[in-house]
């Protein structure tokens, strides 16, 4: 668990006067479970996937953010940033790039080699986003417009449609 990531994240949000609140909760392994504990809708969850995108001369690690009630189309993600294929990163790579375990990765990139992208649907349905903030026992509920303004993710449509 990364207390350092949580501290860095809250400092960033405070610096930019973001509207957010912290929710302490028991460890929950699935998006559905943590949404119930937080008192939020599943679709408010900002799910973070660390991926490799390759092809067409591109070799890029990507932090892909999408609503927790959706599934990622990794091929669409790859094509959206100019590559030909994408795969999920290993747990070792996730740790090195995010300083977080799977499930605790916030939708912010603090690593220079990790490109932040978000599916536009993330910004269209809810006024607030919820996500684990560096640990599995602590979440942030953040104003959606503040998230987009502060994080400035590259917008790529990559939600699975079939």
UniProtKB/TrEMBL annotation:
InterPro entries cross-referenced by the UniProt entry: PROXY (IPR044786), YbaK/aa-tRNA-synt-asso_dom_sf (IPR036754), YbaK/aa-tRNA-synth-assoc-dom (IPR007214)
Coiled-coil annotated spans: none
YbaK/aminoacyl-tRNA synthetase-associated domain location: 25-149
A GO term for molecular function: aminoacyl-tRNA deacylase activity
Keywords: Aminoacyl-tRNA synthetase, Ligase
PANTHER family: CYTOPLASMIC PROTEIN, MULTIFUNCTIONAL SER_THR-TRNA DEACYLASE PROXP-Y
Designated name of the protein: Prolyl-tRNA synthetase
Organism: Hafnia alvei FB1
């Amino acid at each position: 668990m990364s207390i350092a990531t949580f501290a860095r994240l809250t400092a960033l949000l405070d610096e930019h006067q973001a509207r957010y609140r912290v929710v302490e909760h028991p460890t929950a392994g699935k998006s559905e479970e943590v949404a119930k504990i937080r008192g939020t809708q599943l679709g408010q969850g900002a799910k973070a996937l660390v991926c490799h995108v390759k092809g067409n001369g591109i070799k890029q690690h990507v932090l892909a953010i999408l609503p927790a009630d959706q599934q990622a189309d990794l091929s669409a993600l790859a094509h959206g940033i100019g590559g030909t294929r994408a795969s999920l990163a290993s747990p070792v790579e996730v740790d090195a790039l995010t300083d977080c375990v799977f499930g605790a990765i916030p939708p912010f990139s603090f690593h220079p080699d990790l490109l932040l992208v978000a599916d536009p649907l993330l910004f269209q349905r809810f006024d607030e986003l919820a996500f684990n903030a560096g640990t599995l026992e602590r979440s942030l509920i953040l104003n959606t417009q503040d998230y987009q303004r502060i994080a400035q993710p590259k917008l790529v449509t990559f939600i699975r449609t079939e």
